[in-house]
Amino acid sequence: MLPRVADSLSFLYLDMVRVIQDDTGVCAQIHVGNGRTDLVYLPTAALSCLLLGPGVSITTPVLNTLARHGTTVVSTGSGGVRAYAGILPDSLTTHWLEQQVSTWSDPVRRLDVATRMYAMRFGNAEIPDGVTLDQLRGMEGQRMKALYKILAQQHGIGRFRRNYHPDQWQDQDPVNLALSSANTCLYGIVHAALLALGLSPALGFVHAGTQHALVYDVADLYKAETTLPVAFALHQSTNPEKEARRRFREELRLLRLLPRIVRDVQALLTPSHASGTEDRSERRDIDMVHLWDPKTGSLPAGVNYATGTN
Q: What is this enzyme's EC (predicted)?
């Protein structure tokens, strides 16, 4: 699966294969039965993020090749529904991380991103001008309450109340169990997308105080259309947690969401990017480290500035 964003950012998910380097390139060895093994060569130079699911073994030469090509490697659960660890190549641009940090550290710009995150959840609904963040939180609460009611009526399960208590896990109803499991799957795929961009998952704009703050921010944009319908559809399941994970894996719902997550996060961090007034290159790969300057922004490194500054 190679969902592409613009022309340069792509993801590839693998599981149950061995990935090796031969004289031709990087290839996945796929055992197809009867002692036969097929080789599928990977387009590493055009690949931005490789998601390694269960059953993947990968050699050091392959990791070196991926690093040279600037490919991020993320260890995930089956179907990419968890993100356990990521390896970022040193050639990955810090552009998006710098955008995140500069926006996050400015209270006015952080509030703007948080406000637009809430607005995205409402879709095409009209947001009153000058609405405060406190008012948006109240509107979001009402929206979720109404959505719970609609889904409960559609499935004939009466009144539903979101309940998440890890210490009372087995006492929860099937919908709550399925929803917690599905949300965890969504967090994994969002986490992988953020790592692929080189962002810090800890610097959230709505959430704070956890290493997954930005993961929770971004995942909240999609729960109403992804995890909630799946969870309510499993209200009669005897194993709703497993069933929720299976549905996401088999239908690849979350993997198809990856390009959209990347696009939305970029638009949130740089509104001009979304409007098409900025260079649409996602990677912004750099060949040389720059020096920061408070007036010019950046200066070339590797230059002797002794004569120019005195």
A: 3.1.-.-
